[in-house]
Amino acid sequence: MVISKKLEKALNEQINAEMWSSNLYMAMSFYCDKEGFSGFGGWLKKQAAEELEHAYAMAGFLIQRGGTAKVGKIAEVPASWKNPLDMFKKVYEHECHVSELINKLLDMAVADKDKASEDFFWQFVREQVEEEATASEIVSKIEKFGQTALFQLDSRLGQRK
Ligand code: FEO
């Protein structure tokens, strides 16, 4: 069953959103590197790479389903934040926004009675639980423990494989 034109368009918009996310995390990594948080910088570069993997997976699925994957224009991302706490709050907010986008895609697949797309989107629903929880944990640690948490988190997140 070929994917519907409506879902094809929505998936291409999501591919664009994933690339924007990748650029956002790259910009955040540059900000952290400049501010002396090289551990955060390294973690964010891996996060940026993971967002591109999401875009590739969506493009691959779209092509398998007879659609055409497109690389559209990517809007500019912010370049600076007040401090690492402010930045990680934005990471959390952004991941919540992405979760809403994924949920809408799943709703569209259900409306289309497109089981293959439903199955495909469920993996991203599960992924978003992890993405939101990770960002939320970082924010609450910094809020509770301030500078000490910043120092320890920068060291811990820098070890991400
Ligand atoms: Fe592609 Fe962070 O969700």
Layout of SSEs?
Blueprint: H1 5-35, H2 38-64, H3 84-111, H4 115-157
The chain binds MU-OXO-diiron.
MU-OXO-diiron (FEO) is lined by residues 18, 21, 51, 54, 95, 98, 131.
Describe it for me?
This protein is mainly α. The protein has one domain: Up-down Bundle (Ferritin), CATH 1.20.1260.10. It has helices spanning 5-35, 38-64, 84-111, 115-157. Helix 2 runs antiparallel to helix 4 and helix 3 (84-111) packs antiparallel against helix 4 (115-157). The longest helix is centred in the C-terminal third of the chain and has 43 residues, at 115-157. The radius of gyration is 17 Å and the shape is elongated. The model has no long low-confidence stretch (mean pLDDT 97). The structure holds MU-OXO-diiron (FEO). MU-OXO-diiron binds at residues 18, 21, 51, 54, 95, 98, 131.
